[in-house]
Design brief:
Oligomer: single chain
Structural class: alpha/beta
Order of helices and strands: HEHEHHEEHEHEEHEHHHHHEHEEEHEHEE
Strand content: 5-15%
Distance between the termini: 58 Å
Number of strands: 15
Bound molecules: nicotinamide-adenine-dinucleotide
Strand order of the largest sheet: 3-2-1-4-5-6-7-8
Shape: elongated
Largest sheet: 8 strands, mixed
Helix content: 25-40%
Radius of gyration: 24 Å
Length: 430
């Protein structure tokens, strides 16, 4: 029985997709004593893992090297080995198409590979964020086409990944894991699996509930960020410091949770996941108005940042055309190297379109290339000594020396309140 093999750590676990979600998970299972095989279409990732090299900042080099050396983690592009697994955990991307419709092609490819070797007793778990119904409507029929029945011959569950890259306080191991199976046997087996490596497991009654939990969480963030971005614009118009307002509001011990304005949404989750939900809601004739509105407000933020650059330059009678503008931080959030959906990409494009000469410094992102603009990161010391007309703090990485930046750069647009406590007319907050 798979559940017994899970309980005594004999289950062989296959993880499909070894990115920000899959590699930390694979490492946790291997650390707990399971034999883990990672599957990825990217040969360079498999080679790095087999050489004991971590390419995900949240997976410490030493931990990965140790489980690889102990023979508990290896990686391969050979999908035929999926047949040797007791458990298959799918962690592939779920992007949006240009039309903002869900792109399930990665899930479909991964499931197609699992179907080929599907065998009785296997536990298949989908972790990729997706709309409610995906597991039952898309994954289950593909697997059952083989003639085996879910929750009887094989087990099937959905368990959303909640990892927050770069967050050392809440990690894969400590973040409670929500699990919903297509039936009770599947829920029990998947719960047993995660209980082996994760402190708290939260079983729910169906895959649809588990899928919806993740989308509620991320929609909650997107909508609240949209609200606070709108409040920031409002405060600017009324000459009120929005950051001071939030700091004071969050002293209320109940009924308020701080969210912060910024240059726009980034990453693989918040800008994307709510649109999986609104797309699915539309299929039921339901219009998800909060999601759409938050999308409008949040996606207009890069344009607003450029407006603040115009305001800053205007204060010293300079045009944006021909001005040298330097971005500090272009990753989508602090202390990570992830550029997916980063608002800095839009900001660079908008500035270049207006004739600015744009450069950047990001110790986590050595080079960037987007819509024909290719730039290399300028070293921090060099950037602080250079003669830029204006700087934009897009991402508040901890390594930046903000005191020195405030003293050296003639104009700064600070989109993150990184210069909190430093008061100068040359600093333009969001
Ligand atoms: N990054 C996050 O912070 C985060 C947090 C929670 C949930 N999620 C969700 O988890 C899922 C994975 O996200 P991620 O950030 O790890 O993505 P990622 O791009 O970092 O990793 C995905 C990996 O899957 C591989 N892959 C793609 N197609 C494949 C296939 N057919 N077979 C094998 N491997 C394949 C890719 O090569 C890549 O290595 C997404 O649904 C995402 O929304 C991400």
């Amino acid at each position: 029985m798979t559940i017994d093999r899970i309980r005594n750590r004999q289950a062989r676990i296959g993880i499909i997709g070894l990115g920000y979600v899959g590699l930390p998970l694979a490492t946790e299972f291997a650390k707990a004593g399971f034999e883990v095989t990672g599957f990825d279409v990217d040969d360079s990732k498999c080679s790095a893992i087999n050489a004991g090299k971590s390419y995900i900042p949240d997976v410490p080099q030493s931990e990965l090297a140790e489980v690889v050396r102990a023979g508990r983690l290896k990686a391969t592009t050979d999908m035929s080995q999926l047949g040797n697994m007791d458990v298959i955990d799918i962690c592939v991307p779920t992007p949006l198409r240009k039309t903002k419709d869900p792109d399930l092609s990665y899930i479909v490819k991964a499931v197609e590979a699992a179907v080929v070797t599907l065998k009785k007793g296997q536990l298949i778990i989908l972790e990729s964020t997706t709309y409610p119904g995906t597991t039952e409507e898309v994954v289950q029929p593909m697997l059952e086409a083989k003639g085996l029945k879910a929750d009887v011959d094989f087990l099937l569950a959905f368990s959303p990944e909640r990892v927050d890259p770069g967050n050392a306080q809440h990690t894969t191991k400590t973040i409670p894991k929500v699990v919903g199976g297509v039936g009770p046997v599947s829920t029990e087996a998947a719960s047993a699996l995660y209980s082996a490596v994760i402190a708290t497991v939260v079983p729910v009654r169906s895959t649809r509930v588990a899928e919806m939990v993740k989308l509620l969480e991320n929609t909650f963030r997107a909508v609240n960020i949209g609200l606070v971005n709108e409040i920031a614009l409002m405060c600017n118009r009324m000459d009120i410091d929005v950051w001071e307002v939030i700091d004071a509001a969050k002293t209320k011990p109940f009924g308020f949770m701080p969210f912060y304005p910024g240059p726009g949404l980034g990453g693989h989750c918040i800008p994307i996941d709510p649109f999986y939900l609104s797309w699915k809601a539309k299929q039921s004739g339901f219009e998800a108005r909060f999601i759409e509105l938050a999308g409008h407000v949040n996606s207009a933020m890069p344009e607003y940042v450029v407006q603040r650059v115009v305001d800053a330059l205007n204060s010293v009678k300079k045009p944006i055309n021909g001005s040298r503008i330097h971005l500090f931080g272009i990753a989508y959030k602090r202390d990570v190297n992830d550029m997916r959906e980063s608002p800095a990409l839009d900001i660079i494009e908008l500035l270049v379109r207006r004739g600015a000469v744009v450069t950047f410094t990001d110790p986590y992102v050595p080079t960037m290339s987007h819509n024909g603009h290719a730039l290399a990161s300028v070293a921090i010391d060099e950037a602080l000594a250079a003669k830029y007309d204006c700087a934009v703090i897009c991402t508040d990485h901890k390594v930046f020396d903000y005191e020195r930046m405030a003293a050296n750069v003639p104009l700064i647009v600070d989109t993150r309140n990184a210069l909190k406590g430093i008061d100068r007319p040359s600093i333009f907050k969001l």
